[in-house]
Amino acid sequence: MELYGYYRSSTSYRLRIALALKGLDYQAHYVSLPKDEQRGEGYLAVNPHGLVPTLVDGGHTLTQSLALLDYLEETHPEPPILPADPAGRAHVRALAQVIGCEIHPLNNLRVLKYLKGTLGLDQAAHDRWYCHWVTEGLKNYESSLQGLEAQGLRGGRYSYGQAVTIADICLVPQIFNAYRFHCPLDAVPRTMAVFEACMALPAFDETQPKKQPDAEA
Ligand SMILES: N[C@@H](CCC(=O)N[C@@H](CS)C(=O)NCC(=O)O)C(=O)O
To answer: Is the distance from the beta carbon of residue 70 to the nearest atom of ligand 1 less than 6 Å?
Structure first.
């Protein structure tokens, strides 16, 4: 397998975690977002959307991190990153989508560049936008965890059940982004406890941004 990504890209980090959990080796290709390499001719030939990550496997060039997590689960089911039952899978996918569909797209690099470059927001307004959507989204994540707890469905250290799932895989990189922009996290104690539990696992720790070969010094 080949993974095109960037150390600070939270969607790339999702893939690094899943590959590590499943013990899968891959060849890494580094696409520097600050250097705009995602829009260079070379990378656009791989992924015409100009976004990371891209996974190449078995002659297929695959995109969209949530679809890629499902792909890895279907092609390498052990250890699972989704619960066995349909309701459990729906709960976990819903949590993952709070991050992947409700927070990340609003704070993606191209959106932030548009806010500053085209609409002329200053750094303070940019940071307010960023933290607003992180805080709103994570509060929803927190209330979902609370709801699962009330139904007896959390059962462990992680977001759902007793094992790590794609919900945790999406959550942890988003918390790294929140730290980077100094967003307040005190309103989401359950969520932060899940983050700490995940970071105790090598698959999350060793794949974190600063430990990647393309991390800037
Ligand atoms: N929905 C896509 C989003 C991918 C995405 O937006 N990746 C970001 C990095 S986290 C990116 O490549 N941004 C480049 C840009 O905005 O120019 C996914 O989950 O894979």
So the answer is: no
In this prediction, the residues of the chain whose per-residue pLDDT falls under 70 are: 217
By three-state DSSP, how is residue 119 classified? Answer: coil
Asked if 25 and 11 touch (Cβ cutoff 8 Å), the reply is: no
Pocket lining: 212 vs ligand 1, CB cutoff 6 Å: no
**Exposure pattern of 170-179 as b/e (b: 16+ CB <10 Å)?**
bbbbbbbbbe
**Atom of ligand 1 at shortest range from CA of 52:** 12
Question: Which atom of ligand 1 is nearest to 68's Cα?
Answer: 20
Closest C-alpha residue for ligand 1 atom 5: 51
State the DSSP code for 98: I
pTM recorded for the entire structure: 0.97
Structural domains of the chain ordered from first start: 2-77 (3.40.30.10), 86-204 (1.20.1050.10)
